[in-house]
């Protein structure tokens, strides 16, 4: 069995969210060094604020400023910070109940070591030097032995409130396609196409994924298919691809389902080497490889007579 | 009372359960290659074929796979021809079982296949799980799953409800019990290790691993024909807490208690409890919420501290509880599943065998 392949896979996206009036006020407030909570009808102050009372589900909008000082309600010492976390040096995760609030905010506490942290300790906000209206505008908390700082009585109304945030996210994976797909990719590197035959219905699947989707049984018998095949159906693409890998492809062009000889499932690929308006069902095609490519660049006519409809109608 | 009183709900049972051996990595298998053997196993236990199954429901997460709609490829392992009635939850398979159970309660189907799987090995599961947090106030700080559990553990310690030694004992008992579980990933004597995020040590945390599980549900007489001693589901309920961690009392789990009450767990004592507590400190919270005393056998399988394939570990709790009833080791068992940080969402199922 050939080696199972693996490759890095990065999923990265700018997570773009709109803000309601309460979250907008809170995050805009952080930008202006003001911490806002929201008051419930029974008089509790929630920090960070939410739009609906977590107990009654009642809509709440009554913003109230709280102090930048507070008390640690629980903590955990993080000796090995991970990517994206607030501090790059060892720190404590803390829930902090700010003075004037009845609930606690999660953040990081900059402290020299776990012995310097305890539940009940007093802390204050350390503001980020550059603030954009995000929870990270609080750089972290720091120990604070002084007097409680009185809040300023801000109403929560700002001249230029934020309406949305962009929270970048990135996750790293090592993708492994498993045995069947590894074998398929290995074969492609030798410019061969292999499928797998179902032991039950005898159909040959390409690309193989290790299971017959019809019978739900494992497939193992490798079968080389192609390289030639038959166009079973196609469409004419009139919009130029936006992806950089496809910028050189002129429109219109044809994208087709191709039943490789010996396969019971059609692959899809671009058709070249023939004017787009002459491509037809039954056209016989073969792959065109470009130097260094990991899969055929496109398929072109072989010049053979067209395949009889009866030979591929099951594969449409 | 009138004569038009609705008839009671149908009796529905877990009639078969299968799981993979849980391992740190299964790079040689695609998801469908990992799932297919357990599907074949539960079908073989009952003699059913895919075409006999009334409803199929699965649980998994695209964020573990790093690919959109990853569950559709795993569905290849079911054999979806002729066409099947199918659904998916982006949750632990315990919630897929809940959906299947309600489907069977309506009478729309008599049998259901429920499966779930998680491959944690391709990504960094501690980071991956941060993406389920509040995207405005919490996720941008990237607090990982161990960090959040550690905050809960410290709150428990501050409240005098546990200490490091008691937590270590939970881990040690779980891994010792897991020696009788051929599927467990971490078993035997495991050093308690260093702090991962203090106060939690390696031994307080679940292993990271890949695995899958499947169960078959059947209604009424159908269940009796498929299984010598069906594990009747007497109730299932699931509840969620406020999503802001700072609003909650982390030392308690009112959602678990309420789910247990609505599932009928407190009507009579249970002899077994399979608790989905990935961290030792969470077992302390759950025991208190569920009022479990030492007469109850807790996590004889080793629980999530012995194997924690994310998205399957909750379904495995239901499967393990059911399997104990199948083999006569339990008469009335509680199974619990959790999802989200610090026991945010909780599902409780109560299972019973016929009187002996
Ligand atoms: Zn087949």
What can you see in these coordinates?
Chain A: This is DNA-binding protein. Chain A: Residues 64-127, 223-289 form the ChsH2 C-terminal OB-fold domain. Chain A: InterPro entries: ChsH2_C, ChsH2_Znr, NA-bd_OB-fold, Thioester_dehydratase-like. Chain A: It comes from Streptomyces cyanogenus. Chain A: Residues 187-217 form the ChsH2 rubredoxin-like zinc ribbon domain. Chain B: InterPro entries: Thiolase-like. The complex is a heterodimer of chains A (316) and B (356). Chain A has 316 residues and is mainly beta. Chain A has helices at 21-31, 178-189, 309-312; strands at residues 7-18, 35-39, 45-46, 62-66, 69-78, 91-98, 105-109, 122-127, 138-143, 164-175, 193-197, 204-205, 221-225, 229-237, 253-260, 267-271, 284-288, 298-301. Chain A has 3 domains: 16-170, no CATH class; 177-225, no CATH class; 226-316, OB fold (Dihydrolipoamide Acetyltransferase, E2P) (Beta Barrel). Chain A starts with 6 loop residues before the first strand and ends with a helix. Chain A is built from 3 helices and 18 strands. In chain A, the strands form 5 sheets. In chain A, strands 7-6-5-8-9 form a 5-stranded antiparallel β-sheet, with no helix packed on it. In chain A, strands 16-15-14-17-18 form a 5-stranded antiparallel β-sheet, with no helix packed on it. Chain A is elongated, with a radius of gyration of 31 Å. Helices cover 9% and strands 36% of the residues of chain A. With 356 residues, chain B is of the alpha/beta class. In chain B, 31% of the residues lie in helices and 20% in strands. In chain B, the strands form 2 sheets. Chain B has a 10-stranded mixed β-sheet with strand order 3-2-4-7-1-8-12-11-9-10, sandwiched between helices. Chain B has a two-stranded antiparallel sheet with strand order 5-6. In chain B, a hairpin with a 5-residue loop joins strand 11 (332-339) and strand 12 (345-352). In chain B, helix 6 (145-158) crosses helix 10 (280-289). The two termini of chain B are 33 Å apart. The model of chain B has no long low-confidence stretch (mean pLDDT 95). Classes of the chains: A mainly beta (316), B alpha/beta (356). The structure holds zinc ion (ZN).
